Structures are given as C-alpha cells and as structure tokens.
Amino acid sequence: MRGITREEFLARQEAARRASAARGLAALLVVGRAFYDRPGNLAYLTNHFPPFPTAVVSGRMRGLGHAALLLPTEGPPVLVADGPAVRRDLVAVEAVEVSSDLPWALAGAVQARGLATARIGLAGADILPLVLFQETAAALPAVTWEPAEEIVGGLRQVKSPAEQALLREAAAVATAGLAAATLRVVPGATEREVCAAGTAAALLAGADFVRYLRVHSGPWATWGSRWPQATDRALGPGDVVTLDIIGARQGYQFDVLRTTVVGAPSPEQRRLLEAGLRATAAAVEAARPGVAAERLLAVAHEVIAADGFGEYARPFAGHAIGLETVEEPYLVPGVSTPLAPGMALCVEPGIAVPGLGGVCVEQEILVTEGSPEIITHAPIRLW
C-alpha cells in the first residue's frame, strides 16, 4: 500500500503478537473478507486484500473471498489465501500458502507449526462462515479457540500518521464525487443520472472502487435504505435529495453523506436542514480526547431537541472509519469508549420528519489533541 511502509506492517504484527502472548495465546488467526467488504483486520496486519468476491461454499471451493493470517506468538506468520492473485511484492508476509479449500489449508498451517494442541485466538469470528469454522475446528480437535477480536480491533482504532494521510486522500475523492453529483441535482434529472455522474468523478479522482453512491429523493430521501442505490425517478422542484458516497482510495475508506434540495427549500425545510447542520457541527466540536463516544450523539440530540425536532432524531450519530467503512467505536448510546488522538470518525446525526423530509450532513474527522480536524471538504450547505 502506498504511504505505509513494510516496517509499519511488521510493527503491527509484533504488537498483535505481544497482545496475544499477554492473553496466554500461542497464536492468533486473523480472518479477512473480500476487499470491498470486510478486509480490515487482515489488511491491517498483512496488506493483503482478498480480491475474489465471497462465494458459495461448494465442493472443493471452500472459502473463496476469504483469507487468513496465522500469527504465532513465536515464529514467522503465514498468510493463507484463496487463490494465486496475491501481490507478493506488497504483502508483508514471507510465507504465503494458496488453496481454494481454506479449512484444509488452515489446518495444515496450524499443524505444520506445532500448534495443533494450542490456544489460538480468533479475530474475525463475525465474518468467518460457520461451515468454514466448523470444518477447520473438526480438523484440529485439540485446538482451543478463543475470541480475540479486541486484539487487532484495538490496534486499529488509533490511526498512524500514514493512515491519516490516506484517509485525507480518500475524503478528497469523496468530495470530487459529491461535487459532480450535486451539479446533476436539477429538475428532470434522474437519480440514476446523478449517481452515474458522481461515481464516474470519484473513480477519475482516484477511487479504488465506489461501493455505492446512494441517491434517494422525495419521499424516499429519509428512509436510509441502501438498495437500490438509485432509480429512474426524476427529480422535481422541492424534492429533498440524499447523496451518500462510500468507497475506498488506496485501501482506506470514505463515507460522506450530504442532503440537498432541488431548487429552493420551503421555510420549514430550511429550518429542518439548518437544524441538522447545527447538530453535526455540535457533535464534531464535542469530539475531543477523553470524551466518551456516546457523548457525541447526546450533544447532537440536545441541539435537535432545542430546534424542536427531538422526537424525530435518529438514535445514531456515526462510527469510526479506516480500512472498513464502519469500524469501532460506534457513536451510539452505551458506547463509553473514550476518544483518543488519531481516531477517525464519521459524524452523522440525522433527523427524519414524516411528510417533510430528512437531513443528515456527515463529516469525516480526525480526533486530535485539540479541536478535531475535519477532513471532508465537500460543501455542507447545499440549499
């Protein structure tokens, strides 16, 4: 990955190794899924992004779209990949084994390293299909498997300077996509045309991919649904329009949402839109070191309630972002994780009023020692 050195990847592996040893584990098995999906833990330690789509488990094809790193606390790691399309010039692991039968290959790697009776932590239990885990465990009956999500997840929460630089680049790509999409928000244009313009601009600006540019208008603008991302619906004067672009640049994700209106908003729409904008600004300003993640939602809700829309505030103010679109911590009630310098957050409180419309202005920020750094430079007042 451009911008992150091999030495940084090796330092991450060593940190994960130390954390595993402190837990009394003999090794850590780190699972990743397709590059556009959930590659985070694996990519963080190895710089490998599984290139194949996740696919049905059938016959000897058992694990396409997945890969795993076996990281012993002592001895060299091994990357087990689902096919030969491994960029060995980029991957920060010397030993790479390729197989379309992931359980068989993983079992062989564990046995070859004398870990067949060991305690092994599993990072990725939420993305490893049950059938693949069952087959791996059956081939290694004496292994004790323990959940270990927090080992790599904890390391990923604070971004290094190199990661922060890549996140800034990714946010700039989102800005380019939104700028092109916004220009197409005119009476008579279809959601699909707006989506196509923004997606093309983001790709030309350097996106690895655009997972989607959600363009929802009129009565559908407040739903928050992700499918379909855009339809043939023609925009009309006064329509509220949601523009939500998600993708990646150099492996690091962008996720930026804007709300606009076709033409001039009504006075009540304007009051709603301005309330949403103030809520985001207040939540961003609250993102200081030591502040609990859930506090950002509480601050946003205080603003929304003061503007008279309290009953319509959504119970979600965002999430962290990095190698995956949605990372920890979530900005929701009950998440007391203290913010720390280097965390990257998508701050997106929202309001949805039936019959009137909705608003969400999402800002990507980096937590710093002082005021947060807003890395999203797309205009925020599109009305």
CATH topology of the largest domain: Creatine Amidinohydrolase
Mean pLDDT: 97
Briefly note the structural class of the backbone.
Answer: alpha+beta
Indicate the percent of residues in helices: 25-40%
Unreliable segments of 5+ consecutive residues: none
The count of β-strands is 16
Helix count equals 9
Read across the widest sheet, the strand sequence of neighbours is 4-3-2-1-5-6
- Number of discrete domains: 2
In angstroms, what is the radius of gyration? 22 Å
Biggest beta sheet summary: 6 strands, mixed
Write the CATH homologous superfamily of the largest domain: Creatinase/methionine aminopeptidase superfamily
Order of helices and strands: HEHEEEHEHEHHHEEEHHEEEEEEE
CATH class of the largest domain: Alpha Beta
Distance between the termini: 38 Å
Report strand %. Answer: 15-25%
Cα shape: elongated
Structure write-up:
With 383 residues, the chain is of the alpha+beta class. It has 2 domains: 6-156, Creatine Amidinohydrolase, Chain A, domain 1, CATH 3.40.350.10; 161-374, Creatinase/methionine aminopeptidase superfamily (Creatine Amidinohydrolase), CATH 3.90.230. 32% of the residues lie in helices and 22% in strands. It has a 6-stranded mixed beta sheet with strand order 4-3-2-1-5-6, sandwiched between helices. α6 packs antiparallel against α7 (191-204) and α8 runs antiparallel to α9. The protein is elongated and about 70 Å long. The mean pLDDT is 97.
